[in-house]
Amino acid sequence: MREDPKRRGLLYAGTEHGIYVSWNDGDGWQSLSLNLPDVQVSDLLVQENDLVIATHGRSMYTLDDIAPIRELGPTMAAGSLKIMKPRVATRGVDEAVIQYALVRAADSVRIEILDAAGRVVRTYNGGGAQPPDSASGRAEVPRDSAQRAAATPPDTILNPTGCETPRGGRRGGGGARPSGRAGLNRFVWDLRYPGATTFPCLILWSASAEQGPLAVPGQYRIRVTAAGQSQTQPLVVRMDPRLKGVTLADLREQFALATQIRDRLSAANDAVVRIRRIKSAIAQRVARAEASDVVASANDVTQKLSVVEENLYQVRNRSGQDPLNFPIKLNNRIGALGRSVSTGDARPTSSSYTVFRELSAQLDAELKQLQHVIGTDVEALNRALAGRNIDRIRAE
Questions:
Q1: Are 356 and 260 in contact (CB under 8 A)?
Q2: What does pTM read for this prediction?
Q3: Tens digit of pLDDT for each residue in 103-142?
Q4: 186, 202, 304, 381, 389 from 289: Cα distances, Å
Q5: CA distance 31 to 86
Q6: Domain tally, the chain
Q7: Which of these three, 37, 66, 95, is where a domain ends?
Q8: Can you tell me the distance from the alpha carbon of 330 to that of 265, in angstroms, rounded to the nearest whole number?
Q9: Are residues 53 and 86 in the same domain?
Q10: Which of 11, 39, 66 finishes a domain?
Q11: Which of 71, 229, 250, 396 could disulfide-pair with 347, CB 3.0 to 4.6 Å?
Q12: Pairwise CA distance, residues 51 & 65, whole Å
């Protein structure tokens, strides 16, 4: 038998048939065996926030993060929502575990991570039944360009592989969804800020657009909103205590550069999404136009857009191994720099800043060329379409 070192009167007892817990100095007991087999618990230890047991012949088990046992007791506290105080998270070692209890199932659950200034770092929405993420799905489309355009909704972007996504792409790193089940729920924040914009079938070598910069050690807050209530708990993110010669200022500088790189990668990917949206709109107009001069002008504009697109992204990539066969393009180079800067815990090197400035200048040149094509060639095509009562191409 052991008493919890952080809550007086909270006892754990190992028996011949599992483990039990008491919240009232042993006056009453409840089973804590959960999914354990019927085993003899010959020893147990409360180590910080974990309960560790030794069995006879069936190895050892750890029940990690026993905050709910300490805070809730045998019954749910007053109110429909209760957030447990999260344990300290260590940057680069473990993640932030968020545990919250609901008296009844909730159709909507929102978890927000806030920094010390109260700014929202990440937002996760879930609870209830979640619709499938249409932006990540595949769709069968006709091979013929005219049929392809006619079968495509007006706000859809098509890339060469036939994938589709709603207008505007999507921000990476938003796949995790908190649950809204009655009882105890668990959600993990990976300590990362949002990633860069992505698009369907995006393939990068030695880079991940979805993975955002790692949070700097410091004070954060967790806010959970569900069942008509909203509660917050403080969260501490600490530096790995094993690090030597690394300061908080170093990690702040690393975060700042990683954030700039992420934003530049988003700008490149946003441009690809925009180009594909315009090209799809052009294909739809061509399918309706009968004049050969309009078709020729549309093909010319499409070709100019494709030149910029192919400078930004390797459009021939179809699998994770294709970057070995085809040249790495600009967004991949930016993403690879981001991975280099974010690997480990250290101040960025001077060469990282040099490469960042060079890649940023190249990206600015491509974005300027894209804007020139939109402002001149696409607008000229729009005037030709207007003369034939065909809807103009929206290039914003």
A1: yes
A2: 0.83
A3: 999 999 999 999 999 999 999 999 974 443 333 322 232 3
A4: 55, 32, 20, 12, 10
A5: 24
A6: 2
A7: 66
A8: 9
A9: no
A10: 66
A11: 250
A12: 8
Contact 203, 331 (CB under 8 A): no
- 18 occurs within a structural domain: yes
Task: Identify which of 158, 163, 212, 207 has the alpha carbon closest to the alpha carbon of residue 331.
Answer: 207
Calculate helix-pair angle for 330-342, 350-373, nearest 10 degrees.
150
The edge-to-edge listing of strands for the beta sheet with 229-238 is 89-90, 229-238, 218-226, 109-114, 120-126
131 and 7 inside one domain: no
d(CA 371, CA 365): 10
Question: Does 223 share its domain with 339?
Answer: yes
CA gyration radius, the chain: 27
Give the pLDDT confidence score for residue 292 in this predicted structure: 84
Strand-strand pairing, 89-90 and 229-238: parallel
Mean pLDDT of all residues in 300-329: 96
Label the pairing between strands 50-55 and 41-47: antiparallel
Residue 226 located in a structural domain: yes
Token pair in block for residue 149: 């355009």
Could you tell me if 17 and 44 lie in one domain? yes
Same domain for 60 and 87, yes or no, is no
Instruction: Examine residue 71 and state whether it is found in any structural domain, yes or no.
Output: no
Q: Which long-range contacts (CB under 8 A, 24 or more apart) does 34-39 make?
A: 34/63, 36/61
Residue numbers of the domain that contains 42: 2-66
Q: How far is CA 344 from CA 91, 213, 311, 324, in A?
A: 10, 12, 30, 25
- What residues does 54 pair with on adjacent strands? 43, 60
Are the CB atoms for 227 and 103 separated by under 8 Å?
yes
Q: In terms of domains, do 267 and 352 share one?
A: yes
